[in-house]
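Look over what follows to help learners.
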Amino acid sequence: MKILITTMLLVTAIFAEVTKCPQFFPNGQAPDIKIKHQELCFEQFVISYNTDYKNPLYAAEILTVASMKKADAVKRKDAFHQEPKIDIKGQATLPAFVGTTFDRGHVIPAADMSTVSAQYESFSMVNMTPQNANNNRDLWKKLEAYTRKAAEKFDNTYHISGPIFSKNPQKLKDGTSIPDGYFKIVYIQKTQTVSAFYCKNLPKQTYELKTIKQIEDITGHKFVQFPENVKNKTEFLNF
């Protein structure tokens, strides 16, 4: 029995995702991602980045009552920029979006950032995906507002979002893959409440309410940071 337990612990240690910024995950452990990625830690969020897609695989943050009050006082200043932590060949370029129907869609919203420096980091191209302009400015904006309202009411609220790709995604002229859809998971620690959403990367979309387990099936990621007892429940809260 001791040998079996030791072996299980070793296997867990080998396959557990190591993160340098555990503060952005509810149990300090990053999602288990099967394809290659690079973790990028920023002041108020963390990104898992893939240079083949030239997209983030996910971005995560924690929002609180205090951080939302501070964020409300930070005036937005657009500052899209290439990310110095990643080779330029492995990231989307600003001109590739010009003349397309796609916005440089934030995965972590600029409106969540509670300092000027954090907001600047949120405009890094590693935090952007080619998002249908209508989707970005309507449905996704509403889901971002939902996340902030949850934090304002319940305090510690963990948020993780990311794009979803087909096997052969379409691409921008610089080779940046265009996602087929997006996921967003909102976890309220105090009430053990989960709201998980999926939407296609198309105009005039409505969201589909999913469980974390369903999002795992769609993405192939394992969201090990969330307690197992919340992975099969999801609900939309009316604020």
